[in-house]
Amino acid sequence: MAQRCEDLGERRLVRRVAEILGISERDDCAMVEDGENYLVWTTDMLHRRADFPEIATGWQIGWMAAAVNLSDVAAMGALPTGLLFAAGIPPGTEVEYVEEIFAGMKDCARTFGTRILGGDLDSCDELTLVGTALGRVERDRVLRRRGARPGDLLCTTGTLGGAGAGLRVALEAEGKGIGSDPGLVALTRRLLEPSPRMAEGRALALSGAATSMMDNSDGLVLSLYELAEASGVGFLLQEEMIPIDPLVALVAEDREDALDLALTAGGDFELVFTLRSDRIGDAADACGLAVIGTVAEEGVILASAEGTEELRPRGYDQMKRPGR
Questions:
Q1: Which of 132, 57, 125, 58 is nearest to 91 (CA)?
Q2: Which of 33, 91, 290, 310 sits most deeply, having the most CB atoms within 10 A of its CB?
Q3: What does the pLDDT look like over 226-247, one tens digit per residue?
Q4: Which CATH number goes with the domain that contains 73?
Q5: What is the C-alpha separation between 30 and 119, in angstroms, rounded?
Q6: How far apart are the C-alpha atoms of 131 and 45, rounded to whole Å?
Q7: Alpha carbons 166 and 185: distance in angstroms, whole number
Q8: Does the pTM exceed 0.70?
Q9: Which residue, 114, 138, 162, sits at the end of a domain?
């Protein structure tokens, strides 16, 4: 029986394709040398049914489409130079709705210091948005997924689990709305209006303190497996140090459920990075951060008062679309 993509999973399929194309390393962006700089490119495809809950507005769809691409540029420590978008629009879509989508794209790009340069538009059975973000970073400041070494500190920006909790709220609200509860509204905005960490990524690059970095858009644990593979290391996380978004408590069943959202739910678009322990001061001066563990020899291990456990590589997989 022929093997199906959904059986293989997104990451194993990407590895197969990378082998065919002769791509030996995978970072958040592709890079090309340009004098003393690297030019960086990234692209992401989003679909109406798979990637956006029913409650998402046209403006939020556009904002998110731009934000997910800019987040990859941030993870390289680069400055954005522009975005391109190809949009597949169902012919029966209301024009005003399409205008809202592109307004959201424009507002996101402008908020983070760049603009939409152009793109393509065509008809499609399902609303499909394909974004490409471009950026530039000095060759001696670029941050990649490889570079972590045993003994380095493991850190993250922001808090974790908010977007996953927001997705739970959004799915429960389909067809009936979320009401006016400010906490639930804030959670859905955390999901649908993510803030790519452009300033933080750039500041960390300029500080020279970070040894590796990527965004955690598919969940913290999956991101750590990606970093571990790229650097040939492992990670030891400390449960009590993981910064769970306080709003997660509004929907989590208990502490264990809240922790699971922080570890495995995607969509937070924070930066997860490593740095030498003697450079923690420089990194803290560059941006707000939380130390959540250390770089180890192998494995992705969670330590708690009850002991240690090896975490399975769980998170958002585009080939297996839970709840979307």
A1: 125
A2: 290
A3: 999 999 999 999 999 999 999 9
A4: 3.30.1330.10
A5: 19
A6: 7
A7: 8
A8: yes
A9: 138
